TrEMBL record:
Keyword Flavoprotein: no
Domain ABC transporter: 15-263
Domain of life: Bacteria
GO cellular-component term (any): plasma membrane
Record-given protein name: Amino acid/amide ABC transporter ATP-binding protein 1, HAAT family
SUPFAM superfamilies: P-loop containing nucleoside triphosphate hydrolases
One Pfam family cited in the UniProt record for this chain: BCA_ABC_TP_C
GO molecular function: ATP binding; ATP hydrolysis activity
Length: 270
């Protein structure tokens, strides 16, 4: 699955990371990392294990607070805001390790992603038929649209914990989509999947970006997928940015070959 080369992202940055550093005691997880992501872009972050990729997503989503630096979402500084507040402002997130409610249905897991958008209060709750019911039905229509898009209608009533790993990853993507994010953060969305599941997930991510217009920031180890569907790629090594550019530029970068692809400098052709 490849992206449509005729679809070009807007130049306006919807996410900006400015000189972000993160430390845990004496360990430096990130050091002075800066980059921006344009509206409508599919931006991938790659690097060896321990390079700081998930730490960067945790800083963006609000799970970690950087030791220094700034994070801006659509021009607003969100560095000190909670994850819930960032979700309200338009930031969605999936996790490397599944974080679904196993005892709840697929449909209800996805509805959790709409929770921050609910406007009903104690009064409208008491007067359910005057407003809250209409609001709930509107949110359920959005959930049904996501279910149809991800082709999970047959399992909408199934308990999430009973599903295969690949389907659970799809449900987690659905819940992140339900936030209606400006930017969606995907942490290894294809990890642990077989080839068919990876192809399906790659197609959904491209369609999410191109048809739904969502800006995507993705961590993924499958280099073939990354190079096929990304507009730009950033490479981290030991918490530092060592390359950023078009997929073909990054693949040709000697430092990336040494650090990430395992190609020894002595093996490179002059």
């Amino acid at each position: 699955m490849s992206r449509d080369p005729s679809i070009v992202p807007d130049r306006h940055p919807v996410l900006e990371v400015r000189d972000v550093s993160l430390g845990f005691g004496g360990v430096r997880a990130l050091t002075g990392v800066s980059f921006s992501v344009a509206k409508g872009e599919l931006f991938s972050i790659i690097g060896p294990n321990g390079a700081g990729k998930t730490s960067m997503l945790n800083c963006i989503s609000g799970r970690y607070r950087p030791s220094s630096g700034q994070i801006l979402l659509d021009g607003s500084d969100v560095t000190g805001l909670s994850p819930n507040r960032r979700a309200t402002l338009g930031l969605g997130r999936t996790f490397q390790n599944l974080a679904l409610f196993g005892h709840m249905s697929v449909q209800d897991n996805i509805m959790v992603g709409r929770h921050h958008l609910l406007k009903n209060n104690a009064l409208t709750g008491a007067l359910y038929w005057l407003g809250a019911r209409r609001e709930e039905l509107a949110h359920r229509r959005v959930v049904e649209e996501i279910i149809d898009f991800l082709e999970i209608a047959p399992i909408r009533k199934a308990q999430a914990g009973t599903l295969s790993y690949g389907l659970r990853k799809r449900v987690e993507l659905a819940r992140a989509m339900a936030v209606s994010p400006k930017v969606i953060l995907l942490d290894e969305p294809m990890a642990g999947m077989n080839l068919e599941e990876k192809e399906d997930m790659a197609r959904f991510i491209v369609d999410l970006n191109e048809e739904w217009g969502m800006t995507v920031v993705m961590i993924e180890h499958d280099m073939g997928v990354v190079m096929d569907i990304s507009h730009r790629v950033m490479v981290l090594e030991f918490g530092c940015k060592i390359a950023l550019g078009l997929p073909e530029e990054v693949m040709a970068n000697d430092r990336v070959k040494v650090a990430y692809l395992g190609i020894d400098e002595d093996e490179q052709v002059a």
